[in-house]
Design brief:
By secondary structure, the chain is α/β, with parallel strands linked by helices. Helix content is 34%, strand content 20%. Helix 6 runs antiparallel to helix 7.
Length: 209
Amino acid sequence: RAGRSFTFDPAMSFGRTTKIKKAKNAQPDALEESAAQALYELQVNSDKLKASLKDLYITAAKEIDLGEGKKAVVVFVPVPQLPQYQKLIREKGLVEELEKKFSGKSVVIIAERRIIRKESRKKGSRALKQLRPRSRTLTSVHNAVLEDLVFPTEIVGKRLRYKTDGSRLLKVHLQQDSKGVADKVDSFSKIYKSLTSKDVAFEFPTTLA
């Protein structure tokens, strides 16, 4: 597009490559390149973010259809860097700045965690040599995704509801004083469903036990 000088700027193009590191040196797709580009532009041009973003990078990105013509961009980051990203989300409006770069699409930042399968107990099977860390179980990873998704809002409770058809719905209670979060909960539900194949509904309880 006209007016986007980074498309033709070799320095910008090189800088973009430093902001994404995919597993096994895989090549980023167009969306991932755009996310890396957006991060690099903020590093170069944003006075409040440039120093903090210097050593940070992403590992992947995924676009999710929210319906009604709306889309969300999920940006995955290394687990060790998540606290730094969340500090920028809480204190310096990183998500809002990225949403401007993506023309108003919702943006969420989630750590890229790998799920390790359960150890096999069958004789002769290819059992894992090391015990599986609790943080790498399916349940733990999905819980962590949920916390990343709603950050900086605090989850204050959860309740699992069984429907008549046998399916399950996780109801998640969020803190009341969450600025602007009420407008995002539908998007959060769809993003979580896309990432985990699980249904979730967010609520704001009036009283907490």
